[in-house]
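Dear colleague,

Thank you for sharing your sequence with our group. We've completed the structure prediction you requested, and as agreed, I am returning the results in plain text so they can be pasted directly into your records. Please verify that the sequence below matches your submission; if there's any discrepancy, let me know and we will rerun it promptly.
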Amino acid sequence: MKPAINTIIFDLGGVLIDWNPRYVFHDKYFDSPDKLEYFFSEICTPDWNEEQDAGRSIVEATQLLVEKYPEWETAIRDFYGQWTSMLGGPIHGTVDIFRELKEKGTYKTYALTNWQSGLFDIALVRYNFLHWFDGRVVSGDEKTRKPFPEFYQRLLDRYSVNPLEAVFIDDNLRNIKAAEEMGINSIHFQSAKDLREKLTAMGVL
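Please find the predicted structure tokens below.
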């Protein structure tokens, strides 16, 4: 018989908060679609951004790229200069699920997020529901990130979480697979509706 679930672990960006750099770098930002795609694939890449999630200063990261790609300076500086415009707001359906879980009083809830620590402070000011968690583990503070096993382990150890009694929710399949390899029950987030259905099937909602 499987252990009962008593802990819910949420990723934040793409699950509870809509964050997308294309809110700033949209179709009209550059003068051609090719430049837009080149910017994301070769300059301000996901790998580059994740170095900041793991603790690198956004100032250092920006200066490194400006020195390497001076002709792209304006766009590079806009990545963090206009970062707040990349926040699309709460994903309300998921926030509603989070609220229901808190109101049940049955579950401990935690956040496990790849987020640069200084930028995360902005989210903490902007979104009250981030203060509902029983604990948060933020990559920028920990100087490591998903999908590295030690990042997940810090949450498990810090809050005495049994992975067999937890459910981890993330929109990134890479992060889901890493959690599953550690024995953590996981849900690949697709939509709030799908999440509700899966949590209901698990007997959580």
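Summary note from our side: Residues 7-18+89-201 form a domain with the Rossmann fold fold (CATH 3.40.50.1000).

Kind regards,
the structure core
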